[in-house]
């Protein structure tokens, strides 16, 4: 069953600024010298590179590092939980990071770093910042299995809560150019399938897309 939810909210942000610089260059004259045979340095073997986060990890969650842009607290839930809990009354079991909000429907059996057996009855409280490229009307899409909520600048924008199969909801917002605080809450009920995706339609466009990683900044 597909559910469509639309609202219009006016939120404000701060414009970004940038600065530039210049440099000078010069040339130095020198006397001609006889050519000298060039010595070639022996080739240097580079060590194998670790997998960069320029490449999306195979699993949706990983150990946070200096390049992380989406952080999340993980909470264990009681069996048969039907809705997102009140995180203020709970203690997280671990902290993890997400590469982006584009976890299409998939089996979830890997668990979390340090919590490998936690594959059902858990919740995430994730935070990031979203860079809005220009002021205007944006449509946001929240797709999840099970429940989720999207907050922008501490305002609940989309409520997709409840224990359910993959369900999509959307809302329309008017946003100013600049950075905006984003929070996405999510919970997984019974195993095995999960999904969590956040998308947008930019002003003047009809193209839906899952928000790319380069639009997010560390919270």
UniProtKB/TrEMBL annotation:
Gene3D superfamilies: Toxin - Anthrax Protective Antigen,domain 1. Residues 37-58 have a biased composition (Basic and acidic residues). InterPro entries: PA14/GLEYA, PA14_dom. It comes from the Bacteria. Residues 65-215 form the PA14 domain. Residues 27-58 are annotated as: Disordered. It holds the Pfam family PA14. This is PA14 domain-containing protein. It comes from Pseudobacteriovorax antillogorgiicola.
């Amino acid at each position: 069953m597909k559910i469509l939810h639309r609202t219009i909210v006016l939120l404000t942000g701060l414009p970004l600024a940038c600065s530039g610089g210049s440099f000078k260059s010069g040339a130095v004259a020198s006397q001609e010298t006889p050519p000298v045979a060039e010595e070639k340095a022996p080739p240097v073997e580079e060590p194998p590179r670790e997998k960069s986060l320029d490449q999306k990890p195979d699993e949706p969650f990983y150990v946070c590092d200096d390049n992380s842009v989406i952080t999340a607290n993980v909470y264990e839930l009681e069996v048969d939980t039907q809705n997102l809990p009140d995180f203020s009354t709970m203690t997280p079991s671990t902290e993890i990071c997400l590469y982006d909000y584009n976890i299409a429907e998939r089996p979830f059996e890997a668990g979390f770093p340090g919590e490998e057996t936690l594959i059902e009855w858990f919740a995430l409280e994730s935070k990031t910042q979203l860079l809005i490229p220009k002021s205007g009307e944006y449509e946001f899409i929240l797709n999840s299995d099970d429940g989720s909520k999207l907050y922008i600048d501490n305002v609940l924008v989309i409520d997709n809560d409840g224990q359910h199969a993959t369900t999509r909801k959307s809302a329309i917002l008017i946003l100013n150019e600049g950075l905006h605080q984003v929070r996405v809450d999510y919970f997984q009920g019974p195993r095995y399938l999960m999904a969590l995706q956040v998308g947008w339609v930019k002003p003047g466009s009809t193209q839906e897309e899952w928000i790319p990683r380069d639009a997010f900044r560390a919270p």
